Amino acid sequence: MNVEEPVRKPQFAGRFLPVEAEEQRGLLEGWVTPVSSGPRAAGLVLPHGPWSDIGPLVGAALSSTRLEEVVVLLAPNHLCRGPRATIVSEGTFVLPTGNVPIDNALAESLRALGGLTELPEVLGREHAIEVLLPLLLAAQPRLSIVPVVLHDLALPAARRIGHALADAVVARGGVTIIATSNLAHYVPAAAVGAATDGLLAALAPGDIEGFVGALRAREKQHDGAIVETCGLSTLLVYLEALAHLGGVGEGRVVARGQSRDPKHPEGSVVAYASLVHPRVPRH
User: Fold this and answer.
1) Which of 126, 8, 114, 15 is nearest to 76 (CA)?
2) How far apart are CA 268 and CA 188, in angstroms?
3) Degrees (nearest 5) of the Cα angle 16, 150, 224?
4) Which residues are CB-neighbours of 16 under 8 A, at least 6 positions away?
5) CA-wise closest residue to 267 among 197, 192, 207
6) Distance (Å, rounded) from C-alpha 43 to C-alpha 179?
7) Domains and CATH numbers, the chain
């Protein structure tokens, strides 16, 4: 590690995941089985949240495909502050279970192509990236990442950034794109299927138009009630990038789950899902 690089220490250990390395490793060994052969992952959709909720779901996805050594991780800006599309191009995440450097060359390429804003401080207030990093590192010990944090992108902006991401990934080669999103926040447990089935039906084939249509249909179905997809911008950019990459196979839903948020009304849950889009050989 370059001693001049920023060191990014955990900010959310003890809240969303255990503090101690031994406890983390014990959980990771039960959830993640590294895959060293077979189809590589072009992209994944993974949930974020407390490990007790999302660990097995993320582990199921990571244990079903081969993660590339370089990952572009698209995460939501939960506070919706600052520029709508930000990136961090330098530094190393120092975790209890190992270090994860940022791939500076790919980050700089994506920043320039996508018109993203460099904003290192965004990592200090966002948990989604931090909670996933130990899981990704367990699946790919040679991991490096490019962290991108997004919020409230209009569809044209998401398409532009997704296209730029595809160009940067093609130029770099050997990259998995991950979007982290929770498909529905604060819906009755009995309504999870209605709130998420349409989204998953469009996410699996990588159909951005179908996905937008499913969102609009959900709005009508719930009669104006807000049903939030946390990380919506990450999914729009992800789908657009996959569409331009080529060589991406039909995705599949690997795992689904839900958990109740104690801060919201009884019976209201967060809906999670993990999907994998495999890379297919070019002929």
Assistant:
1) 126
2) 5
3) 90
4) 49, 50, 51, 127, 130, 131
5) 192
6) 8
7) 41-278 (3.40.830.10)
pLDDT(164) > 90: yes
Place of tokens 């009630």: 225
> How many whole angstroms separate alpha carbon 218 and alpha carbon 26?
39
Strand partners, 199: none
Distances from the Cα of 46 to the Cα of 52, 212, 266, angstroms: 14, 19, 25
Give the pair of three-digit tokens for residue 67: 């993660």
CA–CA gap between residue 120 and residue 215 (Å, rounded): 32
Mean pLDDT of 42-62: 97
| Residue 66, pLDDT score | 97
Q: Is the pLDDT of residue 224 over 60?
A: no
Nearest to 89 by CA among 3, 175, 6: 6
What pLDDT digit, counting tens, does each position of 192-213 carry? 999 999 999 999 999 999 999 9
Angle, helices 208-221 vs 192-203, to 10°: value is 170
Other Cβ atoms less than 10 A from the Cβ of 210: the count is 17
Kindly report the average pLDDT of the chain as a whole number: 92
Instruction: Give the pair of three-digit tokens for residue 64.
Output: 């079903």
Helix, strand, coil percent values for the chain (each to nearest 5): 40, 30, 35
Least confident of 138-142, 187-191, 236-240: 187-191
Reported confidence tier of residue 1, pLDDT bands at 50, 70, 90:
very low
Crossing angle for the helix pair 232-245 and 208-221, to the nearest 10 degrees: 150
Reported as a single tens digit per residue, the pLDDT across 119-163 is 999 988 889 999 999 999 999 999 999 999 999 999 999 999 999
Question: Tell me, what DSSP letter sits at residue 39?
Answer: P
Both ends of the chain: CA-CA distance in Å? 39
